[in-house]
């Protein structure tokens, strides 16, 4: 549970201080994956918080995302661009375990790491050019949705936070149904990023609205 908490708080920092809605299952199958070259490059907001997208694995349509906050602290993530009907989303999860050591002998409780369950979060993409516009989820708002409609989607409470346990197909239906609902993708959690540089840097991730132009399917 400690590892789950750590991942949750790392993602909270990545998402501007809010705790995001987490899911045990992805938002996509292979047929929903998209790839848009316009997403590649560095983007930043007015506070110089940076989102750097590069190609982690183009045939498999995987982006590497390096997030850097205004204090220079970084996070490494893998991201998939997902197209559901005419809408775009990002499925984001940590590129490496949060406790990963270059020397495995330095991991104090090695066998505890076997119990880590990767979790991911979803981001709505409202536009890629000329600005990258993203809408984030917020656990507090999501709890309001679940209070009003407890059967909206399958979930379990973990440390006071709902974690989605629904299948990919069920999550897709849920996300499409509530895509414009403030309780899932809040207007207050919208991030507007301007391009700093184009192109893609060499990735670090280990290999293992209207539709924007240039999407590869």
Structure, briefly:
This protein is α+β, with helices and mostly antiparallel strands and 217 residues long.
Number of helices: 3
Enumerate the strands of the largest sheet in spatial order, edge to edge or round the barrel. Answer: 3-4-5-6-7-8-9-12
Residue fraction in strands? 25-35%
Q: Compute the average pLDDT.
A: 81
Distinctive features:
3 helices, disordered N terminus, 35% strand, 217 residues, 15% helix, disordered C terminus, 8-stranded antiparallel β-barrel, alpha+beta
Characterization of the model:
With 217 residues, the protein is of the alpha+beta class. The chain has one domain (2-199). It has three helices and 13 strands. The chain has helices spanning 2-14, 139-148, 168-177; strands spanning 22-23, 33-36, 41-44, 50-57, 62-68, 74-84, 87-94, 120-127, 131-135, 155-158, 161-164, 190-197, 215-216. An eight-stranded antiparallel beta barrel has the order 3-4-5-6-7-8-9-12. The longest helix is centred in the first third of the chain and has 13 residues, at 2-14. It is globular and about 45 Å long. The termini are far apart. Mean pLDDT is 81; it is low at 1-6 and 205-217.
């Amino acid at each position: 549970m400690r590892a789950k908490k750590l991942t949750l708080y790392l993602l909270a920092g990545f998402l501007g201080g809010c705790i995001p809605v987490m899911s045990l299952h992805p938002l996509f199958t292979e047929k929903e994956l998209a790839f848009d070259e316009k997403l590649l490059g560095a983007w930043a907001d007015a506070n110089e918080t940076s989102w750097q997208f590069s190609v982690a694995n183009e045939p498999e349509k995987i982006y590497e995302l390096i997030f850097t906050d205004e204090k220079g602290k970084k996070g490494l993530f893998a991201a998939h661009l997902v197209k559901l009907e005419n809408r775009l989303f990002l499925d984001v999860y940590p590129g490496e375990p949060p406790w990963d050591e270059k020397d495995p002998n330095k991991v104090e409780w090695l066998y505890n790491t076997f119990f880590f369950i990767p979790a991911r979060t979803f981001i709505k993409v409202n536009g890629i050019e000329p600005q990258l516009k993203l809408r984030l989820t917020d656990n507090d708002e999501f709890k309001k949705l679940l209070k009003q409609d407890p059967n909206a989607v399958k979930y379990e409470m973990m440390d006071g936070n709902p974690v989605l346990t629904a299948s990919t197909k069920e999550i897709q239906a849920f996300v499409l149904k509530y895509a414009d609902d403030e309780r899932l993708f809040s207007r207050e959690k919208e991030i507007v990023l301007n391009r700093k540089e184009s192109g893609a840097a060499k990735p670090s991730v280990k290999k293992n609205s209207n539709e924007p132009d240039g999407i590869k399917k």
